[in-house]
Amino acid sequence: MNNWNDIYKRQGEVQSKVLPVVVDAARLFQDKNCRKILDLGCGTGRHTIYLAQAGFQVWGVDSSDSALDITAKKASELELGNIELENQDMLQLSFPDGDFDGVLCIWTTGHGTIADLEQSVAEMHRVVRPGGLVIADFCSVEDETFGLGKVLEENTFIGGRPGEENIPHHYSTAEEIESLFRRFSTAIIEPVDYTYCDPAGQAHVIKAFLVRAEK
């Protein structure tokens, strides 16, 4: 399932702009006195760098050495000493229970099956401390790419996205996400639209759900 290392080797850093939801997440982490943050599925580190520059202690985790190398180079150039980077599988994290004050997981969870989503949310719940925050997003069934490719299971497809042909993509409903976050004490689920440009410069809109959950 995981071909991200090859993808990052080919594409390098494609998205570099910090998303507004992450700017908002940083404010929420500060308001809740969250200092140690896990950037789960950090990719090439645009949000890892942003959070570190905002003063957080940040652990950036990804399964791609190529992506982590790009992040490490940027952190070194900026002389940021409050970043730790690790290659880990988000479904089987090595961190102790309750190790983080907050978890950020953006543009990551939809790459997999529903079982992968269940396991990744379970790991987020495990590694965040009681009272800590998880901020994550999930691609919506309303997104324009829903249905592209071969059906793997309900609302999950593969082979339909250029550049990510071998990566499964799962699309969620609000009801499904509510079930995924049932172990948390509170979970606010809201629709969000992201805009971005692909490598060819064409603009796209991603329809997703943003979750702010407290353990």
Roughly what is the average pLDDT, rounded to an integer? Answer: 91
Low-confidence stretches: none
- Strand-pairing-aware structural class: alpha/beta
CATH superfamily: Vaccinia Virus protein VP39
CATH class: Alpha Beta
Strand order of the largest sheet: 3-2-1-4-5-10-9
What is the CATH topology?
Rossmann fold
Number of domains as seen in the coordinates: 1
The helix/strand series, from N terminus to C terminus, equals: HHEHEHEEHEEEEHEE
Rounded to an integer, what's the Rg over CA atoms? 16 Å
Q: How much of the sequence is in beta strands?
A: 25-35%
Number of E strands: 10
> How does the major sheet shape up?
7 strands, mixed
**Tally of separate helices:** 6
Instruction: Tell me roughly what share of residues is in helical segments.
Output: 25-40%
Give the overall form: globular
